[in-house]
Specification:
By secondary structure, the protein is an alpha+beta fold. Helices cover 49% and strands 21% of the residues. The protein has helices spanning 2-53, 55-61, 95-103, 141-179, 196-228, 249-254, 272-282, 322-357, 366-394, 407-417, 419-424, 443-459, 506-509, 518-528; strands at residues 67-71, 77-80, 105-112, 117-125, 131-137, 233-238, 243-246, 287-293, 296-307, 310-320, 403-406, 428-434, 438-441, 466-473, 477-484, 532-537, 543-550. A 5-stranded antiparallel β-sheet has the order 2-1-5-4-3. α10 packs across α12. The chain starts with a helix and ends with a strand.
């Protein structure tokens, strides 16, 4: 501001001096013009008297820097001090000549083609009737300026110096009270009285701004507290794609180091889907994208932000939907498997029934066909029951209360149920226990888990093999281990045996009956009770499965 005021005062001073100099030169020009015309008139009168007294002798003796011309009444040039009179044009049409013939005297100022310069003319009528004309070169503005140039230079130098110091001092004096203002406490400032209305407005505005800042800080703090406690990531962008703000969940979800505020959105992630989400939002279109980051699946909801009708930025919301995505995939796979598994018994039932309907079956074979229909129906019922059980466990929607359960007694009851099936193949089942076998859980679910484990151990065992069940209770947990002497599981299939309808050995699986959901029920039952499952198996050497129940 100081520089602006300084320049204004300095330039004003210089311009005023320059303007005064221009006015002076123009004034001098008109002054000299009048003086030249007056001097020319005086000289013309002097020459007129001399000619009238002694025409020939006077002109020969006369020495004048001005041009003297004598013109006859018809305009013929009789005499000229600068040119050969015989070579000059007729002067009857000259303004000053015509005026002198009419009024006795005449003047004019014009450009002379003969002298190639601007000339002043004064004409007077002699007693003889002839016209005496005296002319001289007019003093030009340039000549006046050049005559005074040295003085003007001195004046300009002095003006510049004085203007500099005056402008510097005045600008400092003017700004000193303004610079001394305390804008935080404007009403306490001693300044020009003219500033009082301004200072009152500043004080009022300060109060208003302080209140707005406090409100803004409070809202920002509340918003920051809310967003920082969110598991979802929030990114706010301006129209240039620069990140205005983001919460702490964003770097965690995107698995990056926290970029500074003001970074471009591409500093967070450069994948095509991420860029597409941001670009479409900045173009005014709400969109959703799925983004895979490492093992996580993120859903991006990108929305434009408008202030009135004008878009001012965009907001990206990041949500971890890994579990949801996995559930959807499992659900889709489950539906596909269920459709396939249900189709097989239903096809058998439909086929047997159609044969019986058409009377193709002999009378003595009807019981056998009816038995097949019954077996397939029971298999179908078991499968539906298992599906319902898994669904309830998966959604935590069991309507069965938890109770104190003795796992040893529960296991013994399951062994009794499967005893006949084991004896048919000569498989020996044994149970050992160590420590406290009491736990809290859902009896029906625990029984179903043990049943499926033991059923599989018998079903996929070798003839005359063995199944060993060991229970061990400690202060912190209760261990349930079941080991068989069956076919075992290939190393690459250990993680998949708990999938719905998955069978590790197709050749042996086809020889056995079952819904294919037994181990899936075991897994979901373990998750429901907060238990951990581990599997140890050597192909052709048996399998050992351990479940650790927390107390």
């Amino acid at each position: 501001m100081n520089k602006k005021i300084f320049r204004s005062i300095f330039y004003t001073s210089v311009v005023m001096v320059l303007g005064a100099m221009v006015v002076l030169i123009v004034s001098l020009y008109y002054y000299y013009a009048n003086e030249q015309m007056s001097a020319l008139k005086t000289e013309a009168v002097y020459i007129q008297r001399g000619i009238e007294d002694d025409e020939t002798g006077f002109l020969n003796k006369l020495s004048s820097p001005d041009r003297i011309t004598i013109v006859a009444t018809d305009g013929t040039v009789l005499y000229d001090s600068a040119e050969d009179a015989s070579k000059l044009d007729n002067h009857a049409d000259r303004e000053e000549i015509a005026a002198a013939l009419k009024n006795g005297t005449g003047t004019s100022v014009r450009y002379s083609s003969t002298l190639s310069e601007k000339t002043i003319y004064y004409a007077v009528t002699l007693n003889s009737g002839e016209i005496l004309r005296v002319s001289t070169e007019e003093t030009s503005l340039w000549s006046i300026f050049m005559g005074l140039i040295q003085y003007f230079v001195i004046i300009l130098v002095v003006t510049f110096v004085l203007s500099y110091f005056v402008a510097r001092k005045l600008s400092k004096r003017l700004l000193e009270p303004i610079n001394d203002m305390d804008l935080d406490r404007p009403l306490e400032t001693e300044s020009y009285a003219e500033f009082s209305p301004l200072l009152r407005k500043i004080a009022h505005q300060n109060t208003k701004i302080e209140k707005q800042v406090e409100d803004s800080k409070r809202r920002q703090k509340d918003f920051q507290t809310i967003t920082d406690n969110m598991s979802e990531g929030i990114i706010v962008l301006n129209m240039q794609g620069e990140v205005i703000s983001y919460n702490h969940a964003v770097p965690e979800l995107l698995e990056i180091a926290a970029p500074p505020d003001g970074s471009h959105i591409l500093a967070f992630n450069r994948s095509r889907r991420f860029r597409q989400a941001a670009d479409q939002a900045l173009e005014g279109t709400k969109n959703e994208q799925k983004l895979r980051v490492g093992e996580k699946v993120l859903q991006i909801i990108a929305s434009p932000v408008f202030t009135g009708k004008e878009q001012t930025g965009a907001v990206l919301v990041l949500m971890d939907i890994t579990e949801k995505d996995s559930r959807e995939k499992l659900r889709a796979e489950f539906v596909s498997n269920v459709s396939h598994e249900l189709k097989t018994p239903l096809t058998s039932i439909s086929g047997f029934a159609e044969i019986m309907k058409n009377g193709i079956v002999a009378e003595e074979d009807i019981p056998r066909f009816a038995g097949n229909i019954y077996d397939e129906s029971q298999h179908l019922i078991e499968m539906v029951d298992d599906i319902l059980t898994i669904s309830k466990l998966d959604e935590n929607q069991l309507d069965m209360p938890e109770e104190d359960v003795n796992l040893k007694e529960l296991t013994e009851s399951v062994i009794r149920r499967l005893d006949s099936k084991a004896q048919e193949r000569g498989i020996k089942v044994s149970l050992t226990s160590d420590g406290d076998t009491e736990m809290t859980g859902v009896p029906q679910v625990l029984q179903e888990m043990i049943y499926n484990l033991l059923d599989n151990a018998v079903k996929y065992n070798r003839d005359n093999g063995s199944v060993t069940i060991a229970l061990k209770g400690t202060k912190d947990e209760l261990s349930f281990n079941i080991a068989d002497t069956g076919y075992g599981i290939a190393p690459g299939e250990k993680e998949r045996i708990f999938e719905r309808f998955y069978r590790s050995d197709k050749s042996h699986s086809e020889e056995t009956e079952g819904t294919g959901l037994g181990l899936a029920i075991v897994k979901h039952g373990a998750n429901y009770h907060g238990a951990k499952i581990s599997v140890f198996s050597i192909p052709n050497n048996g399998t050992s499965i351990t479940i650790l129940f927390p107390r």
